[in-house]
Amino acid sequence: MEKEALYQLSQSLQKWVLEAAAYTRSQIKQPLEITTKSGPNDLVTNVDRANQVFLAAKIKGDYPQAILVGEEGTDAVPDDWESGLAFFIDPIDGTMNFVKQNENFAIMIGVYDHGQPTLGIIYDVMADQLYWGGPQLGVFRDEVPLLLTDNPPLTKGLITVNTKMLVADDLNLQRVFMHSSGVRIYGSAGIVFGQLLKGNLCAYISKLAPWDIAAGRVLAESLGFQVLKFNGQPISMTTKEGMVVAPAHAMNEILAIMQQK
Ligand code: 2AM
Ligand code: CA
Ligand code: CA
Ligand code: CA
């Protein structure tokens, strides 16, 4: 994609995400319609659904050929998702935080052009912080350019881990934790990516769906993080997968510890 067209796309997506966020803020003091999906801790609200419909309609209006994937819309990634411009939408990331805390949630859109990570937008709605950019545009928090990330050893970095995976300890994650500076838990992939991009965290270990990872992957890889499956292979973007996000040094250490018996 030409840089000018990409910049235009970025501006449009930022505008629509900010509009969805304004609506989201307006609904916080209203009674939410909350329903469960797979279990009691897997929630969706009327605002998740409204944001999904709004963002999909805006994208389709300007990009009628767009391939759309969204957690509360068409959530199956089509086989031909690499045939054009694909948009992965998470209309509220951190719905439990949205409901229980009224903060610490994000709206996210990741754009892949013929399968290539192209543009990422993550908006921390209540902190009013917009992370955006990609390999061609650079990465920004609002107007501030973010710099290439440090490459510290695991012993010098804070990490964040999927809570169930840490408790189950089936992948040596407690050993990874013991080799790190400590664990912090956030409950929203988008909020975690903000922390990684700012340099507050060094690694993220979780099992994530395509819409959880799409935007953050674009931004993180643009700043020098790697995003790899537990076996060190690239992630697929088509299914929920275990993955590590970290700069090279910590990545190598984490994957080695996870493979220890
Ligand atoms: P969500 O709020 O958009 O569903 C990491 O915690 C990510 O997993 C979160 O960003 C959250 O995104 C998702 N998540 C959290 N708890 C979940 C659950 N019980 N079932 C499915 N997804 C969950
Ligand atoms: Ca969800
Ligand atoms: Ca999510
Ligand atoms: Ca969501």
From TrEMBL:
UniProt binding sites for Mg(2+) 2: 90, 93
GO biological process, any: inositol metabolic process
Cofactor: Mg(2+)
Keyword Magnesium: yes
Positions of Mg(2+) 1 binding: 71, 92, 212
Pfam families: Inositol_P
Keyword Acyltransferase on entry: no
Alphabetically ordered keywords of this record: Hydrolase, Magnesium, Metal-binding
Protein name: Inositol monophosphatase family protein
Taxonomic lineage of the native organism: Bacteria, Bacillati, Bacillota, Bacilli, Lactobacillales
